[in-house]
Amino acid sequence: MNISFILPVFDDWDAVVFLLKKIDDNLLKVKANFHIYLVNDSASEAKNIEKIGQIKRTKISSIEIINLKKNLGHQSAIAIGLAKAHEINPSDFYIIMDSDGEDNPAHLEELIQLASEKKTHAIVAQRKTRKAGPIFKICYFFFRIIFSLFTGRKIDFGNYMILPKTIVSKIILESELLQSLPATLLLLKSPIFRLPTKRAERLSGDSRMSFTSLVKLGITHILVFGDTVFTRVFILSSSVFFLTCVLIVYGVFIKFFSNSAPPGWASSFIAPLSLVSINLLILSLMAVFLRKGHRTTEGASVEKATREFIKDITPTSQK
User: Mind listing the pLDDT tens digit for each residue in 274-289?
Assistant: First the structure.
């Protein structure tokens, strides 16, 4: 059994050295050949290559660094790394995890065991608890609600997962993979099994993910379901717009054909409704332009991105 790891790296090379050793230690009981692909998304030379090559490892057969020409972002790096690994070394399973160490390597054996049993399923790590501030937890809670309302799906996992080759061969054909791995997995309606896991501590440095970056990531997840989102927003805004127009007509009727309304009532009634109506029109237009903007990325296939943005592949010394 061959298993490939895809780890996007953005200047976390100190953490990578520690993480690779932890990965190797947690694979001792697993009978398989393991290959590591580090996707260098920093647009600068990979660091600690010598240290990475000198890591004493028992289970990891090879470690290669896929260097990108420019910084493309976390999700695009994963997509390109996954596609390239599938091209040069087709494996039975592919494990995706972040390189900062927060995706706990202690769960690898269980993930692989479940993948072997549920051969057609994506096994995703679902964090039981989040060590984050109250603001982040509140925002994340509302994001999940908004995501569910707009897409009709439930997103409660991140990048840490193991995918069988049957799913990988399909998912790398989707341009949305460049935007979000978890959302694309849901878009394909792939069978998913959720494994509750514990979050580990960062191995080195601090998180570079700002609040703005998190909001942008959340919007990107939602836009993967562009057609569904656009349809729901259009139906909602059109329905409320129609209701608003009916109420405005009713207000005009009361003003000119009824003597029972108090003075100034109709004007006070119509003004806010008109404002709501205008805002709904703006919301509909925003949905159209957001969908149009998202469609422009659909031509940027994963295959094309892999061909255009990979600078080279640097092997490290074998074990």
Answer: 777 777 777 767 766 6
In contact, 46 and 36? CB cutoff 8 Å = no
pLDDT tens digits for 123-177? 999 987 666 667 777 877 888 888 888 888 888 899 999 999 999 999 999 999 9
Q: What does each C-alpha distance from 305 to 68, 73, 79, 87 come to in angstroms?
A: 10, 12, 9, 14
Write down the pLDDT at residue 14: 85
- Geometric angle at alpha carbon 26, from 24 and 30, rounded to 5°: 90
CA gap 27, 196 in Å, rounded: 19
Distance CA(123)–CA(119), nearest Å, equals 10
The strand order across the sheet containing 122-127 reads: 192-197, 122-127, 161-164, 93-96, 2-9, 33-40, 60-68, 310-315
Dihedral of CA atoms 174, 176, 182, 187 in degrees, nearest 10, equals -70
Provide the 8-state DSSP code for 57: -
- Can you read off the two tokens belonging to residue 53? 């090559």
Q: Contact 291/35 with Cβ under 8 angstroms? A: no
Q: Which CATH architecture has domain 2-210+300-315?
A: Alpha-Beta Complex (3.90)
Quote the tokens at residue 207.
Answer: 């998180």
